[in-house]
Structure formats: structure tokens, C-alpha cells
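> call design_seq(struct)
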């Protein structure tokens, strides 16, 4: 019989909660902050003390875990909308459920003497040093799998994007959409699509009113010769999006960057996501030449 020590129990589950949060961040591509992760990990660790309640029914255990997941994800991710909150909550709960299923399967299949899984909580009768090393190895495997998945599918990539126009610079979050092959003009400039609310600093009040109007006849004098209409297809049929040609656009992903003055930026007066990104990139993003970022201005 294993003696459960509360300090090891809490320490084990702090590490596990941290791993689950970071895994959720990788899957959902949501931003977190170090204090949010730290507080949530500690809450997850302390919650493991439920293992000492012997006769907790299965329904109560699931409900407890669901409420706990809501608290942890709410603190770690600070979602801006109900939809965004449900996305990270269900992802976190799903990953936790998968982890719990693996632990339960290991317990009933191999009946290891140094592992207890009870009330949805796992306890390893091993040193924290050994456990920390094991968690790091597991997380490393997860990172490799996630990297290979993104590399070969091109899905779920979020790029940092900077737009330079008329002396103004703005920073955006760009989603690499392999289905966006929209181009403009005889030169076939690649077209990216940005939320108006995100690129508003590039325009004057009069210009924003024009872009919001949806009627592109009475163009402000300041945009004459600079604003273009890009034909596109939507769920409601064919239409046009107003567009500009930025002076320069900079992409960065990890430690690499690329700069171009060739693309066109269409503007959409609708939200493109629930805060995950505010510009849809062209599929040519996967074919551009990347350079290593050398100067401090581009360091993460």
C-alpha cells in the first residue's frame, strides 16, 4: 500500500496542471501570461487534495473537474468572449480527460506499485526530481509532435504581422489560411484580409466612415489613387472589398522574419475570429523566403 504525502501530491499535480495548460495553449493558439499560468498551476495542485475523499461519486468527480477546469482556464487565458472561453475550457477538459484515461488504463493494465489514480487525481510515489524530468520529456514529445503537425499540414499557424502605411506602423496577428489564394491586379499581388477595427490607426476618421459605409462611390480625396476594390466571393455571393497597398509588410514566425512591399491588404468590417487573429494571410506565406532575425528590434 502506498502512503500518499500531501506535499508530493500537490507538487506532482502542479507540474501536471502546468503541462495541461501549455498543451491547451499550443492546441488553441491562445495567449497566456506567466502569472496566470503560475496561479492556475498552483490551484490545480491544491485541487489534487480531493484524492483523500474516499467515496466521491463519479458524477461528483466529473462536475468537480469541470468547475476546476473553468477556473484554471479562466485565470490562465483570460478569454475575451464566451466562445473563446468555451474553446479553451473544452480543450483543457478534453486533454485532462485524455490524460486521466491514460493514467487509469496504466493502473488497471499494469497495476504499478508507485502510481495511484483516484477521484480523477494522479499520485506518483517517486522523487520530484524524477517526476519533473518525466514531465519535461513528455512535454518535449508533445512539442515535437505539434511542430511536425504544423510543419507538414500548415494548419493553425499564427504569425506576427506588421503593416507600414503612410508613416504609421501597426502590429497584427495573422492566421495562415491555405485556402486564401485571392490576388489583385495584373501583377497578381497576394491579398491578405484584415479587420477594420485592427487597422483603424492607419486611417483618418473620414476614411474609416467611408470604409464602414459599404458604398464605395464617394471616396475621400485622401484615398484617391490609393484605395482599390478587390473582387471576392463570400457566402452571400460575389462582392468587393476595399484594399490598399501597404508601403511594407513584415511577417515573423518564431525567430524568422520576411519583409515585402508586394502584397495588397483588403479590409473587412467584420470580426475574423474570437480574438485569435485579426488578419487572414495569403497561402503564399508558406513559399516566402525567411531570414533569421538578427537585431533586437525583432526579438521575442
Amino acid at each position: 500500500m502506498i502512503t500518499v504525502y500531501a506535499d508530493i501530491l500537490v507538487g506532482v499535480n502542479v507540474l501536471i496542471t502546468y503541462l495541461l495548460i501549455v498543451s491547451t495553449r499550443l492546441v488553441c493558439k491562445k495567449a497566456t501570461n506567466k502569472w496566470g499560468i503560475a496561479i492556475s498551476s498552483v490551484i490545480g495542485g491544491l485541487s489534487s487534495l480531493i484524492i483523500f475523499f474516499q467515496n466521491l461519486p463519479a458524477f461528483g468527480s466529473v462536475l468537480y473537474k469541470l468547475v476546476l477546469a473553468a477556473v484554471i482556464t479562466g485565470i490562465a487565458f483570460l478569454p475575451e468572449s464566451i466562445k473563446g472561453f468555451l474553446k479553451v475550457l473544452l480543450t483543457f477538459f478534453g486533454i485532462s480527460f485524455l490524460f486521466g484515461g491514460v493514467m487509469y488504463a496504466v493502473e488497471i493494465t499494469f497495476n504499478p506499485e508507485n502510481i495511484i489514480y483516484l477521484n480523477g487525481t494522479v499520485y506518483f510515489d517517486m522523487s520530484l526530481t524524477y517526476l519533473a524530468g518525466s514531465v519535461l520529456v513528455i512535454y518535449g514529445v508533445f512539442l515535437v509532435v505539434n511542430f511536425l503537425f504544423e510543419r507538414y499540414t500548415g494548419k493553425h499557424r499564427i504569425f506576427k504581422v506588421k503593416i507600414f502605411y503612410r508613416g504609421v506602423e501597426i502590429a497584427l496577428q495573422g492566421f495562415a489560411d491555405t485556402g486564401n489564394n485571392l490576388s489583385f491586379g495584373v501583377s497578381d499581388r497576394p491579398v491578405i484580409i484584415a479587420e477594420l477595427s485592427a487597422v483603424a490607426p492607419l486611417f483618418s476618421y473620414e476614411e474609416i466612415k467611408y470604409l464602414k459605409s459599404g458604398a464605395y462611390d464617394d471616396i475621400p480625396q485622401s484615398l484617391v489613387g490609393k484605395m482599390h476594390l478587390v473582387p471576392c466571393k463570400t457566402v452571400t455571393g460575389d462582392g468587393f472589398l476595399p484594399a490598399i497597398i501597404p508601403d511594407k509588410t513584415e511577417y515573423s514566425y518564431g525567430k524568422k522574419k520576411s519583409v515585402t512591399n508586394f502584397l495588397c491588404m483588403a479590409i473587412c468590417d467584420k470580426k475574423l475570429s474570437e480574438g485569435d487573429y485579426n488578419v487572414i494571410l495569403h497561402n503564399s506565406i508558406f513559399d516566402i523566403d525567411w531570414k533569421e532575425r538578427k537585431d533586437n528590434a525583432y526579438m521575442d
